[in-house]
Design goal:
It contains three helices and seven strands; from the N terminus they run E-E-E-E-H-E-E-E-H-H. The chain is α+β, with helices and mostly antiparallel strands. Bound molecules: 8-OXO-2'-deoxyguanosine-5'-triphosphate (8DG). Belongs to the Nudix hydrolase family.
Length: about 150
């Protein structure tokens, strides 16, 4: 079945965060070995569980992956993308986040990095991230500040 025809499976909803530092840099993390897209850089986040609100899922994922606490009110929708994956449509929602408590540390990922929107463009990332990176780099560092 072609991507244009869609699939019979419901879309896979994934939420992710562009954590933005005081100087306008964005946090990315490397996907762990053994997972799809291993070694590529991604925005922290993960799958929305059945019955879960996207924002609740992202608050949960940021605590699990980076050890930080984020209020739902601190999540601002930034961009989204869709990608026809292996038999299932991925819908990726990206939120911007300026306020959190705790120091982000790589709990599940091998490495995290803070990069400028321009540096993001050159990083190897999953295909669904490309439109999100374009949205971020169009915004530029100054526009990303709160
Ligand atoms: N978190 C995240 N996932 C992304 C990005 N880009 C992208 O294509 N994905 C895809 C990869 C996976 O197919 C899916 C997220 O899966 P995941 O394995 O990170 O989700 P999870 O944390 O819930 O992991 P798990 O419990 O199922 O192992 O979304 C991104 O920037 N961030």
């Amino acid at each position: 079945m072609s991507a244009a025809q869609g699939t019979h499976l419901p879309p896979l909803l994934v939420v992710a965060a562009a954590l933005i530092s005081a100087d306008g840099r964005v946090l990315v993390q490397q996907r762990p070995t053994g997972k799809q897209h291993a070694g590529l850089w991604e925005f922290p986040g993960g799958k929305v569980e059945t019955g879960e609100y996207p924002e609740t899922a992202l608050v949960r994922e940021l605590a699990e992956e980076l050890g930080i606490t984020v209020a739902r009110a601190a999540l601002t929708p930034l961009a989204f993308s869709t990608e026809a994956g292996a038999g299932r449509l991925l819908v990726l929602l990206l939120y911007r986040v300026h306020i959190w408590s705790g120091e982000p540390r790589p709990i599940e990922a091998p490495t995290i990095r803070w990069v400028s929107p321009a540096e993001l463009v050159g990083l190897p990332m999953p295909p669904a991230d490309i439109p999100l990176v374009s949205a971020l780099s169009r915004a530029g560092c100054a526009d990303l500040l709160p």
